[in-house]
């Protein structure tokens, strides 16, 4: 007995709108329809993949561009620049330190006395010069004046425009001069210090025999001072 919707083929529960359903005895008879169905399924899968790729393509393009820009910036930062070459005629080595004044001739400097009169410094050879522009150090000046032989002139040099009327400590036998231009300091390459005076011993030929950057007790230079009188 046939039921509605089966088309008399004895298959229940099939929708009536399907019409007559014929089941062949040989399954190979359905090969053509099966191939068509597989083609349709593959085509649908390809279309779905294309739609997904199309939705992701623009963000991927922007991501790739951003990565390329970042890599280019890193390469520009880390790439070493050109090595600077010294200009022609300019030495790349550090400047040589100034030559030590010991053993060099004292420059022909004109200082000024208490009356603003120029005094050629080399006219006082041999001599011991004590620079008191940073530290008056009267006790050191007095010690040197007491120990200096009569043949050796003791000169106290200040840095003002005029020399003081009396030497530091009021020591006798000391001549005070001023060095307004700072020629002695430039020659010695020594800056004034508030806690120490600088002494320079110059022989009869005008050669600097010793420089004392920090004038100490008389015992540290007595022999040099005596040698200047020889």
Q: Topology of this protein?
A:
Layout: H1 31-78, E1 110-112, E2 118-120, E3 127-131, H2 138-147, E4 153-158, E5 174-178, H3 183-188, E6 198-202, E7 208-212, H4 222-228
Keywords: Membrane, Transmembrane, Transmembrane helix
Protein name: Thioredoxin domain-containing protein
Organism: Micromonospora musae
- The CATH architecture of the largest domain can be named as 3-Layer(aba) Sandwich
CATH class wording of the largest domain: Alpha Beta
Low-confidence stretches: none
Largest sheet: 5 strands, mixed
What general form does the structure show? rod-shaped
Indicate the radius of gyration in whole angstroms: 54 Å
What does this structure look like?
With 230 residues, the protein is of the alpha/beta class. It is built from four helices and seven strands; from the N terminus they run αβββαββαββα. It has helices spanning 31-78, 138-147, 183-188, 222-228, and strands at residues 110-112, 118-120, 127-131, 153-158, 174-178, 198-202, 208-212. A hairpin with a 5-residue loop joins strand 1 (110-112) and strand 2 (118-120). The chain is rod-shaped and about 150 Å long. It starts with 30 loop residues before the first helix and ends with a helix. The mean pLDDT is 82. Residues 82-109 are annotated as: Disordered. Keywords: Membrane, Transmembrane, Transmembrane helix. The chain crosses the membrane at residues 60-77. This is Thioredoxin domain-containing protein.
């Amino acid at each position: 007995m046939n039921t509605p919707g089966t088309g008399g083929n004895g298959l229940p529960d099939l929708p009536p709108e399907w019409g007559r359903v014929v089941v062949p005895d040989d399954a190979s008879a359905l090969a053509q329809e099966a191939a068509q169905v597989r083609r349709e399924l593959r085509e649908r899968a390809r279309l779905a993949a294309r739609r997904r790729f199309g939705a992701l393509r623009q963000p991927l393009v922007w991501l790739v561009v951003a990565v390329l820009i970042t890599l280019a910036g890193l390469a520009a930062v880390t790439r070493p620049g050109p090595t600077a070459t010294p200009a022609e005629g300019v030495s790349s080595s550090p400047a040589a330190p100034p030559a030590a004044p010991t053993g060099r001739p004292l420059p022909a400097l004109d200082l000024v006395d208490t009356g603003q009169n120029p005094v050629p410094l080399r006219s006082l050879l041999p001599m011991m010069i004590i620079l008191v522009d940073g530290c008056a150090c009267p006790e050191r000046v007095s010690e040197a004046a007491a120990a200096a032989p009569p043949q050796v002139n003791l000169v106290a040099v200040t840095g003002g425009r005029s020399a003081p009327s009396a030497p530091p400590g009021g020591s006798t036998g000391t001549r005070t001069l001023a060095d307004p231009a700072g020629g002695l300091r430039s020659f010695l390459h020594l800056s004034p210090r508030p806690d120490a005076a600088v002494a320079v011993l110059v022989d009869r030929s005008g050669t600097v025999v010793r420089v004392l950057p920090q004038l100490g007790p008389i015992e540290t230079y007595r022999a040099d001072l005596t040698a200047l009188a020889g």
